[in-house]
Design goal:
Layout (H helix, E strand, L loop, with lengths): L32 H32 L5 H12 L6 H20 L8 H9 L6 H20 L5 H26 L1
């Protein structure tokens, strides 16, 4: 019955723009190109500034630390070695190590991993090394090697003599270096 009922007709559409010219949705970017370039530039500048500040702080910290005088450090080590009263090998090791560290830091020699013979050979190549000092160093290091490796016992006077010899060597090479530099 409903199918037989007359239906009112819909009116025609008014004249207007044609639908064939319509396009899909237009995508609007979140940021414009100039905004992206600007933010990237600002981020790069801020990162560079942060790195510069960090490096400046590190350099400032390094400048605050005062270098230790190699001569003074060696003499303090030699003095401290005197208090190893129980172990003569340890005494000889500390005393000879102080002298070798002085030569490395104060004279610019390479001493790490060298034998006494290699060290004295390299010592003779220094322009400010004299024969008497080289022989004294050779004798001192040989004596320290005997104490370390043969576990020879030392008397109190021998200990004192070794300490004085080490201090004398450091003083001689310090004086020679100062006269060569001036």
């Amino acid at each position: 019955m409903l199918a037989q009922m007359p239906m009112p007709q819909l009116p025609d559409l008014p004249e207007g723009p044609s639908l064939d010219r319509l396009r899909g949705p237009v995508e609007i970017p979140r940021f414009e190109t100039w905004e992206i370039v600007g933010m990237s530039t600002v981020a790069a500048v801020l990162s560079g500034l942060a790195i510069w500040v960090i490096l400046a702080l590190i350099r400032k910290r390094k400048k605050r630390t005062t270098p230790i005088d190699p001569r003074a450090a060696a003499l303090k080590e030699i003095e401290a070695a005197k208090y190893c009263s129980d172990d003569d090998g340890r005494f000889a090791q500390i005393t000879s190590g102080a002298l070798l560290r002085f030569c490395e830091r104060g004279l610019g020699m390479r001493t790490l991993g060298q034998t006494t013979k290699e060290f004295t050979t390299n010592l003779s190549k220094l322009p400010d090394a004299h024969e008497e000092g080289r022989q004294l160093v050779n004798q001192f290091l040989s004596e320290c090697d005997q104490i370390k490796f043969s576990q020879r016992k030392l008397s109190a006077t021998e200990r004192e003599q070794l300490s004085e010899t080490a201090a004398q060597i450091v003083a001689q090479f310090s004086e020679r270096k100062e006269t060569v530099e001036t």
